[in-house]
Specification:
It contains nine helices and no strands. By secondary structure, the protein is mainly alpha-helical.
């Protein structure tokens, strides 16, 4: 007979982050449909009633998970920028590299962040919880916004390029399994960024 391993017990102070972590894992594995209070509780090793003490039902849990998902996403982008070339154009290409690497590392999370039923809208109706990631994008795009041009135009161009490329890349459109980022078509496609906006003087 297989021995039963007792569920890991959580103290009151760390149950909330444990449930959020469990929710992120479920999202990575099965998408938004896999996320339920009961499954989060089971993954965290607590009773199915435990999440009710920390969240206002499933919507509250989703909002907390969405906030954490954007923190992970934002950190990934910033780390890529910090590790890359520090010229204006180097930072622009680095954020795109970080975006692709995030997609490869967190495919499920990328899908639920920006999917049709994703976390972007769930995080906050006003988008406040996703602001940090977008402000990072805005900061690296700023040097390339021509005078008199709405900054959102350049931001949309860069975002559309890397988001579309990332989805195609992880879907295997450039080879299955996807090629190594350093030897695949990334640099060739990102060369389009050389034409974005006006280079800084």
């Amino acid at each position: 007979m297989r021995a039963i391993t007792p569920a890991k017990k959580h103290h009151h102070g760390n149950l909330r982050p444990a449930l959020i972590k469990a929710g992120l894992e479920l999202l990575e594995e099965g998408g938004i449909d896999a996320l339920t209070l009961r499954k989060c509780a089971a993954r965290a090793g607590v009773s199915h009633a435990a999440p009710a003490h920390h969240f206002d039902g499933l919507p509250g849990l989703k909002q907390a998970i969405a906030t954490e998902a954007f923190v992970i996403f934002s950190n990934h982008l910033q780390e890529a920028i910090d590790a890359g070339e520090q010229s204006a154009r180097g930072r622009l290409k680095s954020i795109c590299r970080g975006y692709l690497q995030f997609g490869l590392t967190h495919r499920g999370l990328l899908n639920v962040i920006f999917g049709f039923d994703g976390l972007a809208a769930i995080a906050n109706p006003e988008g406040k919880d996703e602001a940090h990631a977008y402000l990072i994008l805005r900061s690296v795009c700023a040097p390339f916004v021509p005078a008199g041009t709405d900054e959102r135009v350049i931001e949309a161009q860069v975002w559309s390029l890397i988001h579309g490329f990332t989805l195609l890349y992880i879907a295997g459109e450039f080879g299955s399994p996807p090629p190594d980022i350093d030897i695949g078509p990334f640099d060739e496609v990102m060369a389009l960024l050389d034409r974005i906006g006006t280079p800084p003087s």
